[in-house]
Amino acid sequence: MANKQTNINFENKYGFSMPENYALKPEKGISQSVVVNISQLKNEPEWMKEFRLKAYEIFLQKSMPKWGPDLSKINFDDIYYYIKPTKDRAKSWEELPAEIKETYDRIGMPEAEKKYLSGVSAQYESEVVYESINRELSKKGVIFCDMDTAVKKYPEIVKEYFGKLIPPHDNKFAALNSAVWSGGSFVYVPKGVKVDLPMQAYFRINAEKFGQFERTLIIAEEGSSFHYVEGCTAPVYTTDSLHAAVVEIFVKKGARVRYTTVQNWSKNVFNLVTKRARAEENALIEWVDCNIGSQITMKYPCVYLMGEGARGEMLSVSFAGAGQAQDTGAKMIHFASNTSSRIIAKSISKNGGRASYRGLVQVMKGAKNSSVHSSCDALIIDEDSRSDTYPSLRSQENNTQIEHEAKVERLSDDKLFYLTSRGIKKSDAEGLLVNGFIDPVSKEIPLEYSIELNRLINLEMSGSVG
Questions:
Q1: What angle do CA 248, 254, 255 make, to 5 degrees?
Q2: Comparing C-alpha atoms, which of 451, 450, 452, 417 is closest to residue 433?
Q3: In this structure, what DSSP letter does residue 411 have?
Q4: Within 13 Å of residue 285, how many CA atoms lie on the same side as its CB?
Q5: Which of 270, 125, 246 is nearest to 177 (CA)?
Q6: Nearest to residue 59, comparing CAs of 179, 167, 183, 163?
Q7: φ, ψ for residue 447, nearest 5 deg
Q8: What's the pTM?
Q9: Looking at the DSSP assignment, which residues form a beta bridge with residue 228?
Q10: Burial 219-236 (b: 16+ CB within 10 A, else e)
Q11: Is 416:442 a contact under the CB 8 Å cutoff?
């Protein structure tokens, strides 16, 4: 292979690539004909094709973000916008092509499906190649499928919600996603249904110079509850790839949704994602966001607190190593009275990495008795690294409670000395202290994912990743 991969520990687990035995791989670049071709290949209804074309025009008109990390390296004409990995959807795990099956076997997804999950979806390049859902959940009316299937099988639901929280004109990358989206998850949980085990989607980029644009739509009806988990990886290449997803979540009265991301893109990936949720009366939406990989990440999950008593929470951790910029945060917009939001953000920067928190909390007129707590802590490992905090707290109501705290610290020399004096290697001691630093986030996710997060942090600390 021309682009030699590095660092054996990472390569063995996530950073490997597989042969490109694709059913379809069109030419690079984006145009109106590319957008139309994607819609035709998927045999979509006319309304979706028109949605894509309007979004493409908005994409052309929108300018690149003028703030945050430098995105000038992105060349939209040097990207594959659609790759079809297999001719047909596999009906069972065994039917997947050998190279795709081996990919997911090596990252442990089949084992996770058997032990910990109520439903699973696997996207490889542009298409979902495999999905499965617990039969008992299907009997209760739970829908968990890829977005392409949902457009055809559940058009009334999709048309009601698709693009309503994040319209194409929201930002340039939301417009791009709206024009060329492929794959992603559709989750619908009926009124009063409670799903005990998580549902997981796994997104894998294998090709070079590829753009993955999954689209996820989640609807939790009144009184329902569930946990959705997504994981992301890609091989280590010398060329850049783009990941620009859009996620819309509707949480109805009294419903509860937790959305967990463990993102470990390789350091040649631009990760530019738009995620937003709408919470109705007494609803709860929890974002748990873990960002370890990528060259640049710009991600700020948002909650519109629309109903009285609605709650929004954001727990995030990011790690910026050499050559990385993690620009992450959250947005909480209070529209109704007696709403509450909580943001706990943890960042680590090492070997010249830059970790930034960028957050917005806004209490609108009429959102009386709102409660806000925002906390962002940064851990800087060395003098070459950097951490920045850009909080914005705005209130149009006097009768509110707003708290904000921020802290920047280094690893404690005293604690390092204590651990190393007990025979622990310095690198292992640093890993232990960093895992203690992120504990408020890692303890909020299921044990098996928490273990993997801590393992990835330890690999980053030892310099074995990327």
A1: 40
A2: 417
A3: -
A4: 33
A5: 246
A6: 179
A7: -55, -45
A8: 0.84
A9: 199, 259
A10: bbbbbbbbbbbbbbbbbb
A11: no
Helix (H, G, I), strand (E, B) or coil at 104: helix
DSSP string of 167-220, one letter each residue: -GGG-HHHHHHHHH----EEEEE-TT-B--S-EEEEEE--STTBEE--EEEEEE
**SS3 state at 309:** coil
Which structure tokens are listed for 193?
Answer: 């249904």
Work out the number of other CB atoms within 10 angstroms of the CB of residue 156. Answer: 6
Q: What six digits make up the tokens of 300? A: 């700020």
Q: Pairing relation of β-strands 185-189 and 215-220?
A: parallel
The residue whose two tokens read 């698709």 is 162
Phi-psi region of 267 (alpha: psi -120 to 50; beta: other; left: phi over 0): alpha
Cβ contact 246:445 at 8 Å: no
Could you list the pLDDT tens digit for every one of the 466 residues in the chain? 333 333 334 344 444 344 445 445 567 789 999 999 999 988 999 999 999 999 999 999 999 998 899 999 999 998 888 776 555 555 555 655 565 555 555 545 545 544 545 555 555 555 544 445 566 777 889 998 889 999 999 999 999 999 999 999 999 999 999 999 988 889 999 999 998 877 777 666 665 566 788 899 999 999 999 998 887 554 444 457 888 999 999 999 999 999 988 887 778 889 999 999 999 999 999 998 888 878 999 999 999 999 999 999 999 888 898 899 999 999 999 999 999 999 999 998 988 999 999 999 999 999 999 999 999 989 888 889 899 999 999 999 988 999 998 888 887 778 778 788 888 887 777 777 777 777 777 776 665 566 666 666 666 666 533 3
Q: Is the dihedral of CA 186, 287, 387, 459 positive or negative?
A: negative
